[in-house]
Amino acid sequence: MVRRLIFSASLFLFAVFACLTGFQAPATAADPIKLSYANFPPAPTFPCVQMERWKVEVEKRTNGQVLVNTFPGGTLLEAKGMMDGIIAGQADIGNICMAYQPGRFIVTNATSLPIGIKDAKKGSLALLKLYEKYQPEEFKDVVVLAMFTNTPGNIMSTKPVRTLADLKGMDLRSSGGANDILKAWGANPVGMPMPATVEALQKGTVKGLFSSLEVMKDFKFAEMCKYVTLTDTGIYPFAVIMNKAKYAALPADVQKVFMDLKEEQSLWTGNYIDELIAEANKWSKEENKVEFISLSADEAAKWDALLTPITEAWIKEAKEKGLPAEAIIADIKAFLK
Ligand code: DTR
Predict the structure, then answer these.
(1) Both 118 and 140 in a single domain?
(2) Which residue, by CA, sits nearest to atom 13 of ligand 1?
(3) Which string of b and e fits 222-251 if b means at least 16 CB within 10 Å?
(4) By alpha-carbon position, which residue is closest to atom 12 of ligand 1?
(5) Domain coverage including residue 208
(6) Are 200 and 178 found together in one domain?
(7) How do residues 126-153 score in pLDDT, each as one tens digit?
(8) Three-state DSSP class for residue 91
(9) Protein residues whose CB sits closer than 6 Å to any atom of ligand 1
(10) Which residues, including other chains, have CB under 8 Å from residue 297's CB and lie 6 or more apart?
(11) pTM for this predicted structure
């Protein structure tokens, strides 16, 4: 009787302790570690496809010790609140587009300057290497699980753009570093995250957008934008980040799975989007009769010349913030090789 009383009392005390301290019993196979993963664009788009691929790989490589619940379409956190939401623990893992907060991610956003990133595979690797070399302060409250870029930007529009004169004053949706590129060409950049673009195009608030061409298919922009002007410049950098305390609480073998996946996932995503572009272009041309416009050599030279001051301005600004700006640019170019 006394023993039973002592047993019940200890159980009660343990329950109180558990409630007060948030103590969690170690996960067993029957009781896996559950992680939430938030993403801002709709499920079929490439940032969410890479999220599902990561989930599958993690669940497989941890033998079911980890379960990842994915939340596409901004259902848990939306684009601009992603970074702070992950730091605050509103979701365990999240995917951010760094261009949506240009002042916050100065080092990694240097990859969005017009400095010759021509495909997402090389871009993604250069971005990840840049991050690892400089370990920018702005990531100190999270753990980076992957980094990748999209392919270079092109103009998708409802009216043809063949010359700088056609582009003058045209309202085009873009974000971050891409805004500077459009401004330099004389267009009027209208900043908003990608998911907001569908409505802006439908309402006519913008006459097109500047981004990677897979969105012609994934967001069905080809149904409204019947012209593509090939400019092939300016990528957007992305990062997959995890809440620091949640990561620290993971068993060492799970942490190893995550770290071993970092570069592989970054390259997988770069490769995936590179391949997606060919498919989207075919769909745009064949199913939606989109005209693809190549600039003449003379015209392209004029467009390129207008972009030189953008990198110079970034170097000046980054130096004022105490960053080794020239070394950052030189490193990105070296990592691309
Ligand atoms: N180009 C950036 C990023 C981007 C490119 N494709 C997608 C698809 C879904 C979300 C973001 C992006 C942008 O324009 O926002």
Answers:
(1) yes
(2) 194
(3) bebbbbbbebbbbbbbbbbbbbbebbeebe
(4) 194
(5) 153-234+287-332
(6) yes
(7) 999 999 999 999 999 999 999 999 999 9
(8) coil
(9) 41, 45-47, 97, 150, 175, 193-194, 211-212, 215, 236
(10) none
(11) 0.89
